[in-house]
Amino acid sequence: MARVFAALGVAFFAAMFVATMLGVVSRYLGVTGFEWSFEVAGMTFVWVTFLGVVVAELRGENVAFEALRDMALPSRRRILDLAASLSLLAIGLALLLSGIAMLRQSAVVPTPVLRWPGGLTSASVAVSGAALSVVASLRLRRQLRRPAATS
Question: What is the mean pLDDT of the segment spanning 32-46?
């Protein structure tokens, strides 16, 4: 699953980089017809950001309070791990619900330049929220199956 999200992130990053460079070069050289490039760069930037969060969570590389966790007794680590997973689930569900609400409002609203559906950008929030919710649910399931450590 991490590879799929990472591959998508790389593809969106490549598109963002190319679109940005096209926009910069066209402005520098005074070439018209590339006004769309900054719209594409903005849309892909949002996707790169939300996909990056999912990849970081899947790889265990997202911001965490590892020092606090490592200092805690083993019995307290389980509580901290559960709290972290529950927090991630809450954030994932909030993003999913927000993404769905955004899609309801902007899915068919055209973008200013390309006239593409606004839902192309809004979907990144819902996809990220769904993925983070799944990651958190799987972590919780694994953590709750593990026997509690003694202090």
Answer: 95
